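Duplicate of #3305? Posting structure anyway:
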């Protein structure tokens, strides 16, 4: 199955997406969900599910942080399935590692364990981030 074309965001959408990534990396999962959902709502075409998968990851982490095991498991499973169409690397993001993390998180949830430390961070090759490290 060929990898879907990468998203084309305008400057405003890209700035919002970067803000959402920064929120995820700061552990602000609910805020990340809101921010990336605003970007997702304007995306059309095959990249749309990629953004929805990321939103599901963020909401799953939010549920886990609030003790909602069933909600976290459901969203992590849905995110894994949604992100399968994008190969191991998409838009500069290591989806193979994200899917492996989702599987690990589901196993931890099944054993009633706390989220791993340190919290996960999203990195995109095209974005050096605030500290200049990709």
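Output from current build:
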């Amino acid at each position: 199955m060929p990898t879907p074309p990468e998203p084309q965001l305008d400057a405003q959408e890209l700035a919002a997406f970067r803000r959402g990534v920064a929120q995820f990396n700061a552990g602000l999962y609910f805020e990340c969900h809101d921010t990336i959902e605003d970007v997702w709502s304007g995306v059309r075409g095959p990249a749309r599910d990629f953004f929805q998968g990321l939103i599901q990851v963020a909401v799953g982490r939010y549920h886990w942080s609030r003790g909602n095991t069933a909600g976290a498991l459901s969203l992590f499973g849905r995110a894994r399935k949604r992100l399968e169409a994008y190969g191991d690397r998409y838009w500069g993001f290591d989806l193979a590692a994200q899917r492996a993390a989702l599987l690990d998180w589901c196993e931890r949830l099944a054993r009633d364990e706390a989220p791993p430390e340190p919290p996960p961070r999203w990195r995109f090759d095209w974005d050096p981030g605030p500290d200049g490290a990709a």
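Confirmed duplicate; merging threads. Strands lie at 89-90, 93-94. Helices lie at 11-25, 29-40, 48-65, 69-83, 95-110.
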